Structures are given as C-alpha cells and as structure tokens.
Amino acid sequence: MAAPTHCYNVMNSCCPSRAVLAQVADKWTVLILHVLRADTTRFNELRRKVQGITQKVLTQTLRDLERLGLVSRKIYAEVPPRVEYSLTPLGRSLVRVLDSVREWADSHTGEVLAAQQRFERQAAAKAQIRK
C-alpha cells in the first residue's frame, strides 16, 4: 500500500508548511547553511564565519535546523568535547535554492538601497507638503 500524499499550501494559515517557510527564510538559517555547504564545520568556526550572530542565536538556529532534518550534529567523546555540524541531503537540496536568493541579495543591494532612499525622500517631501 502506498504512503498517503499530502497537499501542503503555504498560503493557508493553518498549513504546517508555513512554519517550515518561516524557518528556512530566516536570515540566520540562510547564512549558516551557506557556511555548511562548503564542509563540515565546528560551532566556533560557524560563529566566526557568520558575523554578528550571538552564541545563543547560533545554538538555537542549529538546534532548529537539526530538528527540521537540514543539519546533522556529531559529538566526539573528547576533552574538551568536539561538535561538528554538516548538511543532510535535505539541507543540501535547500542550499541550492537559497544560494540563488543570497546571490540575488548580493547583486541587487545597491538598487534596493537606492529605492529605499527615494522612498524616504518622497515620504519626507509629502510630510512637508502636509504641514
């Protein structure tokens, strides 16, 4: 007997795919997975490479990614303990998609910043007219 198939729809507020989208679209998730795509990485190395992330946020994000099946964690019985993180096959499939988003952000940040400045100038001009 075949396993039942599910129809998920992120546009439905009750659909569990909405929670998945929220986690995979998180900026820290994108940055952590980008680092892990190159190789298995230790916690402190991740922290150094993902500038601006706190230890608490990195710990929580890695835990969430492990729970989602995107990252695996391996603990070595050493003193001090060594913990390494790597992508699972599911995580690798997501990285291919997220790399496009990350590359788009790098390529279009100048345009986005210019649009923000135009918007702020226009909003300020409208506010002056109303006075």
In short:
It contains five helices and three strands; from the N terminus they run H-H-E-H-H-E-E-H. The chain has helices at residues 17-24, 27-36, 43-49, 55-67, 89-130, and strands spanning 41-42, 71-76, 82-87.
Mean pLDDT comes to: 92
* Main sheet summary: 3 strands, antiparallel
Order of helices and strands: HHEHHEEH
SS field, number of helical segments: 5
Distance between the termini: 71 Å
Strand order of the largest sheet: 1-3-2
Computed structural class: mainly alpha
Fraction of residues in helix: 55-70%
β content, as a range?
5-15%
Named at the architecture level, the CATH assignment is: Orthogonal Bundle
Number of strands: 3
**Count of distinct structural domains:** 1
Looking at the structure, what is the overall shape? extended
Supply the CATH superfamily name: Winged helix-like DNA-binding domain superfamily/Winged helix DNA-binding domain
Please identify the top-level CATH class: Mainly Alpha
**Rg on CA atoms, Å:** 20 Å
CATH topology description: Arc Repressor Mutant, subunit A
Poorly predicted regions: none
